[in-house]
Amino acid sequence: MSTPSIHCLKRSPLHLPSGIPGSPGCQRRHTLPANEFRCLTPEDAAGVFEIEREAFISVSGNCPLNLDEVRHFLTLCPELSLGWFVEGRLVAFIIGSLWDEERLTQESLTLHRPGGRTAHLHVLAVHRSFRQQGKGSVLLWRYLQHAGGQPAVRRAVLMCEDALVPFYQRFGFHPAGPCAVVVGSLTFTEMHCSLRGHAALRRNSDR
Prior knowledge:
With 207 residues, the protein is of the alpha+beta class. It has a domain at 35-154: Gcn5-related N-acetyltransferase (GNAT) (Aminopeptidase). 27% of the residues lie in helices and 23% in strands. It has five helices and seven strands. A seven-stranded mixed beta sheet has the order 1-2-3-4-5-7-6, with helices on both faces. Strand 4, helix 3 and strand 5 form a beta-alpha-beta unit. The protein is globular and about 40 Å long.
């Protein structure tokens, strides 16, 4: 079995839709890059889980992924993850995997289907010290450009609570109806997004 390669992102300007704040300016010089976006590795798993646990446990009592599942996806498909590092510190991340069915199922929570053409976004989380700064919006837009630039990936899907539907609609997601996945007493709306437009934006930003 071949080991999947990690596709690093080119440093390129972001082209964000109106109403979404841009990333902070980087005028000062640092030993570490002031802002770096890169795919995550299994070595990042502990830091990822620490942010995820703090973000979700206090709200819903559940984490989308446990630590072993974080390591699992960062080993199998690191190219479908993206972390935002500020001066070397992880401040926000997205973890995804490939899925090969039209709708999400309970199995989609833990499986990576290499032949799939759908990027399933399992979790987006921002460190508590960096919330309310627009970082989740910037990271999601950057992730969709990154995923759309991968030839095999045609669309993105996720599940969210009803209160978050308007947030994801700003990025081109549209509701596909109630999600078949249930976590405890929580129910979700399934959201779908074509990545064609995001792929075009990525190509233009690389020129």
